[in-house]
């Protein structure tokens, strides 16, 4: 018996610029966003706390924020697709803390319909 992986949906162009090279924006569908709130968890927080006592990068936090940023982008792309977009332009990120244990990451941009120029 052979197992087949589910086909991944086609890539959706995402850009921080206001255009995508070689494409023309036909329609602006509005803001697409993806929000993630993450906690590091007790064990990782303790390890990061000890590491923060020394100078240098706290890799536990870096890894958490990188994973959260990717997750926020994935959610933004899902939101854009549900709006009928085939690209997202003008992408930005925002982050904040909620209390001392939670980090909020938001990815947002303009959901658009594009076509080749």
The beta-strand count equals 3
The CATH topology annotation reads as: Translation Initiation Factor IF3
Number of helices: 2
Q: List segments where confidence is low: pLDDT < 50 over at least 5 consecutive residues.
A: 1-6
End-to-end separation? 45 Å
In CATH, what is the homologous superfamily?
Hypothetical protein apc22750. Chain B
Tally of domains: 1
Helices and strands, in order, run as EHHEE
Question: What is the average of the pLDDT values?
Answer: 84
CATH class: Alpha Beta
The CATH architecture category equals 2-Layer Sandwich
Radius of gyration: 18 Å
Instruction: Classify the beta-strand content into a percent band.
Output: 35-45%
Numbering strands along the chain, what is their spatial order in the largest sheet? Answer: 1-3-2
Walk me through this protein's architecture.
This protein has 117 residues and is α+β, with helices and mostly antiparallel strands. The protein has one domain (23-116): Hypothetical protein apc22750. Chain B (Translation Initiation Factor IF3, 2-Layer Sandwich), CATH 3.30.110.70. It is 30% helix and 38% strand. It contains two helices and three strands, in the order βααββ. It has helices at 42-52, 59-82; strands at 23-39, 87-98, 102-116. A three-stranded antiparallel β-sheet has the order 1-3-2. The protein starts with 22 loop residues before the first strand and ends with a strand.
């Amino acid at each position: 018996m052979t197992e087949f992986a589910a086909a991944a949906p086609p890539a959706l162009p995402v850009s921080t610029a206001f255009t995508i090279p070689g494409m023309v924006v036909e329609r602006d569908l509005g803001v697409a966003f993806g929000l993630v709130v993450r906690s590091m968890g007790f064990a990782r927080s303790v390890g990061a706390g000890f590491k923060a006592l020394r100078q240098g990068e706290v890799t536990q936090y870096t890894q958490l924020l990188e994973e959260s940023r990717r997750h926020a982008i994935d959610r933004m792309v899902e939101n854009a697709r549900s709006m009928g977009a085939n690209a997202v332009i003008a992408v930005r990120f925002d982050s904040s803390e909620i209390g001392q244990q939670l980090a909020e990451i938001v990815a947002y941009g303009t959901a658009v319909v594009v076509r080749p120029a």
